[in-house]
Design brief:
By secondary structure, the protein is of the alpha+beta class. The radius of gyration is 35 Å and the shape is elongated. It has 4 domains: 2-233, 2-Layer Sandwich (Heat Shock Protein 90), CATH 3.30.565.10; 240-378, Ribosomal Protein S5, domain 2 (2-Layer Sandwich); 404-498, Rossmann fold (3-Layer(aba) Sandwich); 501-628, Up-down Bundle (Four Helix Bundle (Hemerythrin (Met), subunit A)), CATH 1.20.120.790. It binds adenosine-5'-diphosphate. Adenosine-5'-diphosphate is lined by residues 33, 37-38, 41, 78, 80-81, 83, 91-92, 121-124, 170.
Length: 628
C-alpha cells in the first residue's frame, strides 16, 4: 500500500541523467558511498548507546554486502540507527545543494564523479550511476518507530510505502542497470571492497561463493583472485594507524606493511604520524628499499578518511620528495570525496604537507643521533630522499644538513661539517675554496682516483642520479666549496696552489709540441694546451670542464631549461705535460715518428678515460704492436 508519493526536491528535472551520464568515471565508488553510510549509521547507534540515549540491544553490528546474480541486485545491509519515513524525506529526498543553477554550472567543469559527489553531498545518489531502481528498507532505533520503504526508479519520482522490517537498521538494494552488470561479478565486488573497505572500523561480511563461479582467471590464464570464503569478514577494523605507537612493536609495523604490500621486501624504517592540532592526521609512513625503477614505487601511499580509502594519489598532501614512501595517511579533515583541484587549494592539505616533511626530518635526525652506524648502513637507500628533499625544500634542507652524509671511495661517511674539516688542510686552493674531488664511477676513473690519493687527496663517490643537482645545491649553500670530478682537469689545475712553476719548455718548443699534437689528434673539439705539471703526472690528460660535463649530465636527466646544454657539442681540453720526459722525446724524434708518439700518448689518455672505441681503438692496437 502506497503511503506517499512525491517529487524529490532538487529544482531540476534533469539530475539523474546528469548523474548517470556525466559521472561516468569511477562508477565503482557507489559501493564506497553505500558502505560508508552503513558504517556511519553503525557508529552513530554505538555512540547513542554509549551516551545512554539508546537502551536496546546493539546485537551483531556486522554490515553485510551481498550480490544476487539472478535478481541482478546488490544489497548493503546495516544494523545502524535506521531512519523513520520523516528522516528519509529529510535526508534522502532533499538533495543537499543550494540550487540547481549552481549545480548545472559546476558539473560542466567537473572532471570526475568525486568532484560532484563531494561538492553536493550526493553520496547516496551515486547509486543511480549503476542502478535503474533503488530501494531502501529501514527501521529506526527510536521507540515506536514504524519500518519504512522508499523506492525510486531514477526519475525524480519516489514512493514511500509501509514496510515489514522488524530489525533495526537499513538495507539498501540496487537493481543494476544493464550497463552495470559487471558489478554482479562477486570478484569485482570483492576487489572494490578490498580497495575501499579493507580498514573500515565496522566488520563487513561479504560473499557466499556460488557454484557457478570458478576462481577468477585473467586473459593470460593466471589466477587473478583467490577463493572467496563463505561469508568472511573482509576488513581489519583496527589497523595499526588507529592505535598508539606505545601499543605497537616492530613486528606489528612489519606485518602491517606486508598486509598493505604483500610481495614487498621489508621496509628500512617507519614513522608513525599522529597529530590532532591544527588538523587531524594519523598514519604510518614506511621508507622502502629503493629499486632502480622509481616509477613503480611511486604512488604507493594510501589516503584514508576515517578509515575509508579515498585515493592513492597523494601528490599534494605528501611532499614531492617523499612520493617514494609507502604507507597510509588518514585524515578526517580531507573530505571523503576529494578532487585534485580541491586538494591543491585546501589550506589544511598544505599544512599536512609541511607537517609530514617536518616529521620525516625529525625521524631521520633521531635515527642518526641514536645509532650512527646503523644510519650509515641505510644511507644508500635514504640518501636519495635526503638529497632530493634538501634540493626541493628549504626547511627540510635546514634540518637535513645535520644528518646528510658524504661518502668517499673507502666507503667512509662524513657529515658536511666533518668533511669540510677533513679536506680543508690539503684541498684548499689559492682562492681559499675547498675543492671536493669526486668520482661518478670509481672503477672507470681509477687512474684519476689513484693519482689524487697519491697526493693524499680524498675522493667522494657521487654516483646517484641526483648527485649532480645535489652538488650544485651544496655549492650554493656552503661557502667556498666547489666540487670537481677527479678527471675534470689535471690535479694541479683542479686544486690550484700558489706555487705553480713554469714548465721547462722554451716558447718555441711549446709551440712546436702544440702543433705536433694538433696534427696528430686532428680534431677541432680537442683543445690542446701545454701545461706545467709534475713530471710524474701523465704526459697527456683529456678532460671536459666540470661545469660543462655537469650541465650535460643534468640535461640527460631532463629538467627545465637544461636542453640548451644537452645540445652543445662536446668539447675537451687536452693538457700536455710540458715537464714530462715524453715531450722531450717527441721533440727529438723526426718526421712521422713525432706524430706517431704524440698520437700514441693521446690515445693512451683516451683509453684511460674510456673514450677510445671503434676504428680508433683498432688503429691504436695496430700502432702499439708496430712500436713494440
Ligand atoms: P552524506 O552521507 O554525505 O550525508 P548521503 O547522500 O550519502 O550523504 O546520505 C544522506 C543522508 O542519508 C545521510 O547523512 C544519513 O542521514 C542518511 N543515510 C544514508 N544512508 C543511511 C543508512 N544506511 N542508515 C541511516 N541513515 C542513512
Amino acid at each position: 500500500m502506497i503511503q506517499e508519493k512525491g517529487t524529490i526536491s532538487i529544482h531540476t528535472e534533469n539530475i539523474f541523467p546528469i548523474i548517470k551520464k556525466f559521472l561516468y568515471s569511477d562508477h565503482e565508488i557507489f559501493l564506497r558511498e553505500l558502505v560508508s553510510n552503513a558504517v556511519d549509521a553503525t557508529q552513530k547507534i554505538k555512540r547513542l548507546a554509549s551516551l545512554g540515549q539508546y537502551n536496546g540491544e546493539l546485537g551483531d553490528l556486522t554490515i553485510e554486502v551481498s550480490v544476487d546474480e539472478t535478481a541482478k541486485t546488490i544489497t548493503v545491509k546495516d544494523r545502524g540507527l535506521g531512519m523513520t519515513a520523516e528522516e528519509i524525506k529529510k535526508y534522502i529526498n532533499q538533495i543537499a545543494f543550494s540550487g540547481a543553477t549552481e549545480f548545472m554550472e559546476k558539473f560542466k567543469e567537473a572532471k570526475d564523479a568525486n568532484e560532484i559527489i563531494g561538492r553536493f553531498g550526493l553520496g547516496f545518489y551515486s547509486s543511480f550511476m549503476v542502478a535503474d531502481k533503488v530501494e531502501i528498507q529501514t527501521l529506526s532505533y527510536q521507540e515506536g518507530a514504524e519500518p519504512a520503504r522508499w523506492v525510486c526508479d531514477g526519475s525524480t519520482e519516489f514512493e514511500i510505502t509501509e514496510a515489514n522490517r522488524t530489525e533495526r537498521g537499513t538495507e539498501v538494494t540496487l537493481y543494476l542497470n544493464s550497463e552495470s552488470e559487471e558489478f554482479l561479478n562477486r570478484w569485482k565486488i570483492q576487489e572494490i571492497l578490498d580497495k575501499y573497505a579493507k580498514f573500515l572500523p565496522v566488520p563487513i561480511k561479504f560473499g557466499t561463493k556460488p557454484e557457478s563461479v570458478e576462481d577468477g582467471v585473467d586473459e593470460e590464464g593466471k589466477t587473478k583472485y583467490n577463493s572467496i570464503e563463505v561469508d568472511n569478514i573482509i576488513n581489519n577494523t583496527n589497523p595499526i594507524w588507529t592505535k598508539a605507537p606505545s601499543e605497537l612493536n616492530d613486528e606489528d609495523y612489519l606485518n602491517f606493511y606486508k598486509e598493505l604490500y604483500p610481495f614487498s621486501e621489508d621496509p628500512l624504517f617507519w614513522i608513525h604520524l599522529n597529530v590532532d592540532y591544527p588538523f587531524n592526521l594519523t598514519g604510518v609512513l614506511y621508507f622502502p628499499k629503493l629499486k632502480n625503477d622509481f616509477e613503480i614505487q611511486r604512488n604507493k601511499i594510501k589516503l584514508f578518511s576515517r578509515q575509508v580509502f579515498i585515493t592513492d594519489e597523494v601528490k599534494d598532501i605528501v611532499p614531492e620528495f617523499l612520493m617514494l614512501l609507502h604507507g597510509v595517511i588518514d585524515s578526517p579533515d580531507i573530505p571523503l570525496n576529494v578532487s585534485r583541484s580541491f586538494l591543491q587549494a585546501d589550506s589544511s592539505v598544505k599544512k599536512i604537507n609541511s607537517y609530514i616533511s617536518r616529521k620525516v626530518a625529525d625521524k631521520l635526525a633521531e635515527l642518526y643521533k641514536k645509532d650512527r652506524k646503523a644510519y650509515e648502513n641505510k644511507w644508500n637507500d635514504i640518501g636519495l630522499f635526503v638529497k632530493y628533499g634538501m634540493i626541493s625544500e628549504e626547511k627540510f634542507a635546514e634540518k637535513a644538513k645535520e644528518f646528510a652524509l658524504l661518502t668517499n671511495t673507502a666507503n667512509e661517511h662524513f657529515t658536511l661539517d666533518e668533511y669540510k674539516e677533513k679536506v680543508k688542510p690539503l684541498q684548499t686552493d689559492k682562492s681559499e675554496t675547498a675543492v671536493y674531488l669526486y668520482t661518478q664511477d670509481a672503477q672507470r676513473q681509477d687512474t684519476y682516483v689513484q693519482a689524487a690519493q697519491k697526493r693524499s687527496y680524498d675522493v667522494l663517490v657521487m654516483n646517484s642520479p641526483i648527485d649532480n643537482h645535489f652538488m650544485q645545491h651544496l655549492e650554493t649553500k656552503l661557502e667556498k666549496v666547489s666540487f670537481k670530478r677527479v678527471d675534470a682537469d689535471v690535479l694541479d689545475k683542479l686544486i690550484e696552489k700558489e706555487d705553480t712553476q713554469a714548465h721547462a719548455l722554451t716558447e718555441d718548443d711549446s709551440k712546436k709540441v702544440k702543433e705536433i699534437f694538433e696534427k696528430a689528434i686532428n680534431n677541432p673539439a680537442m683543445k690542446v694546451e701545454i701545461e706545467s705539471l709534475h713530471p710524474e703526472e701523465m704526459p697527456v690528460h683529456i678532460s671536459m670542464q666540470e661545469w660543462m660535463r655537469r650541465m650535460k649530465d643534468m640535461a640527460k636527466l631532463g629538467g627545465n631549461g637544461m636542453n640548451f646544454y644537452g645540445s652543445l657539442p662536446d668539447s675537451y681540453k687536452v693538457a700536455i705535460n710540458g715537464n714530462h720526459k715524453l715531450v722531450n722525446k717527441i721533440l727529438e724524434a723526426e718526421g712521422e715518428k713525432q706524430t706517431d708518439i704524440a698520437k700514441q700518448a693521446f690515445d693512451l689518455a683516451l683509453l684511460s678515460q674510456g673514450m677510445l672505441t671503434g676504428a680508433d681503438l683498432t688503429a691504436f692496437v695496430e700502432r702499439s704492436v708496430k712500436l713494440i
